[in-house]
């Protein structure tokens, strides 16, 4: 064992949280699990561990991803470490009824089997405290509608990587309109061939060029929704 190896349990709370931010950044899964357990043993609430250690750490990852300092493989590693920490916290959060930021149903549209971007958005959204239900790839409109109603989601996220499957997003949005459900959901779209104009043209609430933008956009819309309700 190296002399300079950090013993997590010997750090005070503040040092430990900062170390966890670093460990998340470096995608160190076991260290994150250990850190989460130590904070819980010290009497931290699951919600505080989630927000102060994990979400705050993923915010740094998200910012550096947006600024081109980190790339997809590193973000996926960080997100996996975050998931490991979340796995410990999830059952505890459910018991304590911790406040949820919001719930998102996300999936790639019919005819499209690309999922790296979608998976990244889902992980970053979870990292920001959202509950994410990923319905996978190649989704017909029925599958989106069924998931939205079943999950009572706030947000629908649709992704497409092919110019040929992009128009299917409009099919889903038009169907929501026909059923009088369009205003119940915040609809975010993304994928390499899309742009702002396309998002507007099909009636989405926003086009998100990457996962970091998706998280920020979702937070802004949820805040507006809460303010409107208040």
TrEMBL record:
The answer to whether UniProt assigns keyword Metal-binding to this entry is yes
Query: What InterPro entries does the entry give?
Result: Cbl-bd_cap (IPR003759), Cobalamin-bd (IPR006158), Cobalamin-bd_sf (IPR036724), Met_Synthase/Corrinoid (IPR050554), Meth_synthase_dom (IPR036594)
Ranges for domain B12-binding N-terminal:
7-101
Limits of the B12-binding domain: 101-230
Record key words, sorted: Cobalt, Metal-binding
Which top-rank group of organisms is this from?
Answer: Bacteria
Query: Which residues span the membrane?
Result: none
Question: Metal-binding: present as a keyword of the record?
Answer: yes
For this entry, the protein name equals B12-binding domain-containing protein
Protein's organism: Albidovulum sediminicola
| Lineage of the species this protein comes from | Bacteria, Pseudomonadati, Pseudomonadota, Alphaproteobacteria, Rhodobacterales
